[in-house]
Amino acid sequence: MPTCRNIPFSLPRAAVVPDYGANGLYGLVGAIRAYLDGQRWTVPGEERADSAQDEPAPVLVFLLIDGLGDAFLQRFGAGSALLANRRRRLTSVFPSTTASAVTTTLTGLAPARHGLTGWFIHDRRFGGVVAPLPMRKRSGGLIRRPMAPERLFPYPSLFQNRRRKSIYVNPRSIAYSPYSARHGRGADSVAYRGLQGMVAAIATAARALKSAAGGYIHAYYPVFDALSHAHGCESDEAVAQFRHIDAAFAALLDKLAGAGVEVVASADHGFIDSPAQRVIRFERFADAAAMLAGPLFGERRAALCELRRGAEDDFRSFVEAELAGKAVLVRSPELLRSGFFGPGPRHRQLRERIGSHALLMEAGWTITDSMPGEHAHRMIGVHGGLSPQEMWVPLIHARC
Asked: Record's PANTHER family (predicted)?
């Protein structure tokens, strides 16, 4: 599936359009799906030597390092094992955020199909705006309705009904959450603690799959993302964490040396920083907020909203007057038609989940609002938008 084309509307400056073919994360997952269905493993965009055609199926490891953008790797990765094994860059999906991109890696589905169009989605079946991954209402409290995971995530996982076996390696803190349980169906689940625990878990899983004539390991590491949110995407804390991750990656390659394993690493998105002076508090614009049918959802770098009937002209005038140089207003159906949310049959609630309009933020800018009962989270490092730093992620590939 090619990337988005023929875009008939304005975008933020230097915007990177998501690619749902060989140059995107979605295409990489498509190659993984083909491997799980019994085909020979080939990295998208790489030619495999003819001499490798008769080799036994390798054990394939996919390591998803949450938040590790390609720009960060290029800037801080000199001398690292991760940069040494980088092959090229890929785009994330849209929006460039964990809820959308990680779900794509666990399902092989684009956001248009799985329907997770941001950290927050609008779904009136669960009371309005909710965060699907932790299954929490934006106004506070867990979603506890019967069959809630099945209704929020009504699609198969990547691991189900495949010819090759899968093992899902996840931090212990989230390994048994409703989201992980739902998206890990069809795989054996392994929980770990810390980077060393992750490396040990992957190595053990690789040995088990090697004896079973091959298979797939999906491993997820979230700490770099958390530190980038809290301290900034180029903070000392984020850089130090990157060094720890790189050391763990090098140790993993050493443990797997000679074992017939291929390791692919990538990320769900990259980061930019949004300083406090570039955070737009939408509730301060009471007249504009009254033009919306409810609170913002999606992402603070790609905010989705539903305008009240007849309010579009006034709202567009507000954006042009108050948010010029800070945000671009786009009709959400135009984003959908232009392929930003990717291919495939559309989720039944997709129209509700993309709203009528999107506020696509310029570099460094975010927009937030507040709800009664909501605990506000201050974030320095942010993502979800279309900037190169957020959209480009590395494709790292090592043959052990």
From this structure: BIS(5'-ADENOSYL)-TRIPHOSPHATASE, ECTONUCLEOTIDE PYROPHOSPHATASE/PHOSPHODIESTERASE
* Predicted pLDDT at 3: 47
Interior angle at CA 24, CA 18 and CA 30, nearest 5: 125
DSSP output for 62-122: EEEETT--HHHHHHH-TT-HHHHTEEEEEE--SSBSHHHHHHHHHHS--HHHH---SSBEE
What does 196-257 look like in DSSP terms, one character per residue? HHHHHHHHHHHHHHHHTT-EEEEEEE-HHHHHHHHH-TTSHHHHHHHHHHHHHHHHHHHHHT
Tokens for 216, please give them. 């797939």
Average the pLDDT over 241-245 and give the result.
98
Q: What is the pLDDT of residues 329-360, one digit of tens each?
A: 999 999 999 999 999 999 999 999 999 999 99
**pTM score above 0.90:** yes
User: Is-contact 60 262, C-beta < 8 A?
Assistant: yes
Q: What pLDDT is recorded for position 2?
A: 40
Rounded distance between C-alpha atoms, residue 117 and residue 96, angstroms: 9
- CA-based torsion, 359, 354, 267, 229: positive or negative: positive
Per the CB < 8 A criterion, the answer to whether 222 and 275 are in contact is no
